């Protein structure tokens, strides 16, 4: 059990990581918004496999929430989060204030085209600009060799990969498999919003994804399969934002030249928005 | 005399700098577009004062030129540039191709508000987005402790400072004083475009700047002084884009609370655009 250093400032984080860096140890980072669950912990374990030292950031980033979204309601459980990380041998927890990340006069934006087009962007047009700037800032604060992102936010993973390559970020981006509840629901900090009834219904998302992916993989007509999937979700009470098949690397529309495909879904249950995805 | 390593790729640059970084030596970078003159060399000397190792980048960045501008005509003199840098003890020259910097699928933009508003942006609206992305890429390729930029491009210096702060770039931005010809003309790679007649006229820019700065500093009416300055330049054959007084730190409009002021000018002589600035 390591006692993680709790760093509130970029300067403190850099000081904490400096000895490891000078010893040429490998550093891995797991950016999170806190409210940690087993999904996050699996990312931390993956980070430990990739590096000698692990830093986890906990920062609920206001710039990736629209005014209508759940920034204020987003669960904040820092004490418990740090307790969980203590058991995993984390070197540092970077938990800055909003003012530390966005000081007075802040004026810089990062935008990523390519994989950010469509899907989430059609429903959360501000989202990836917010993600791009905060991920850039977090990675440049810690300068990790590796950063681990969950495949649950698959489009985000693709956007971060593209951005890291484009900006020459000195960090390799690793995607880690989604961790699921016993009934298949992807773990998410937002699952706490679900009522007991909604929670039971929620598992249908993964059922629909799995069955559609199998049917498409078996050569079925993707258009018809996706339309049926959307209907099945709607019949169960979901409001579907999208259920779409895309190129797994670029997230562009699937063409004859597409090497691998990914099926992605976003749907509301009551006031909770759930996303998930699966390889085809 | 050090033989500078000529690095064509980001990977080669990182390999070249790795031993210095692991020895905890300080690295300074001077980003340039080549066609080096005494102004650049003074930046390199300043970089040597700031660090143990100096890396100079030579890259004519297409994304900061508009289609109507002089990207193709911009002077390229790499062999001579490297010869000059050899005498200054430069560790590495980073001279990537356009394809190395902007590979297929490149999709990321960096935009800086604040100091980029107005002045150059009114006449070159694409310019600072191009600068922001390339400077981010160059600094992240080399990860210098310090980067030296000339005050001749004063607005660019302010934009880069803002961006470095906002993105948590691990690099301190240093501004270095403008180097001038005997008659006061600020050194610039674009001065080679001037005809002999234009070259004689060009020095008037600094005369007007100096006299206006003195008159404003003495408490004169800035509006009237600037209008007279614009007229004097126009009478000598310049087409003035702007001659403006701004807050020296934020480049915002001057108010009662402004701590220090900067006078900035851009004007055309024939087909050559000249810029300059001075503290008030």
UniProtKB/TrEMBL annotation, chains A, B:
GO terms for molecular function: ATP binding; pantoate-beta-alanine ligase activity. Signal peptide: none annotated. GO terms for cellular component: cytosol. The active site is at residue 40. Keywords: ATP-binding, Cytoplasm, Ligase, Nucleotide-binding, Pantothenate biosynthesis. Pathway: Cofactor biosynthesis; (R)-pantothenate biosynthesis; (R)-pantothenate from (R)-pantoate and beta-alanine: step 1/1. Belongs to the pantothenate synthetase family. This is Pantothenate synthetase. It comes from Stappia albiluteola. The lineage of its organism: Bacteria, Pseudomonadati, Pseudomonadota, Alphaproteobacteria, Hyphomicrobiales. The gene is panC.
């Amino acid at each position: 059990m390591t006692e993680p250093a709790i760093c509130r400032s970029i300067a403190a984080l850099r000081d904490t990581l400096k000895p490891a860096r000078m010893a040429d140890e490998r550093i891995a980072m797991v950016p999170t918004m806190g409210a940690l669950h087993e999904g996050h912990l699996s990312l931390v374990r993956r980070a430990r496999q990739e590096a000698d030292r692990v830093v986890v950031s906990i920062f609920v980033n206001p710039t990736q929430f629209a005014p209508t979204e759940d920034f204020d309601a987003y669960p904040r459980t820092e004490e418990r989060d740090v307790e969980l990380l203590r058991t995993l041998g984390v070197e540092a927890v970077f938990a800055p204030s909003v003012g530390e990340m966005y000081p007075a006069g802040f004026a810089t934006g990062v935008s990523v085209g390519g994989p950010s087009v469509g899907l989430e962007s059609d429903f959360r047009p501000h989202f990836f600009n917010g993600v791009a700037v905060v991920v850039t800032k977090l990675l440049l604060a810690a300068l990790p060799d590796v950063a681990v992102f969950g495949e649950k936010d698959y489009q985000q993973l693709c956007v971060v990969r593209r951005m890291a390559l484009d900006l020459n970020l000195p960090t390799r981006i690793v995607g880690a498999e989604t961790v699921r509840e016993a009934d298949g629901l992807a773990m998410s900090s937002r699952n706490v919003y679900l009522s007991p009834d909604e929670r039971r219904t929620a598992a249908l998302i993964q059922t629909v994804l799995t069955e559609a992916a199998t049917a498409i993989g078996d050569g079925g007509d993707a258009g018809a399969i996706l339309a049926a999937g959307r209907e099945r979700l709607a019949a169960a009470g979901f409001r579907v934002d999208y259920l779409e098949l895309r190129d797994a690397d670029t997230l562009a529309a699937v063409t004859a030249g597409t090497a691998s495909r990914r099926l992605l879904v976003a749907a509301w249950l009551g006031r909770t928005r759930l996303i998930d995805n699966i390889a085809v």
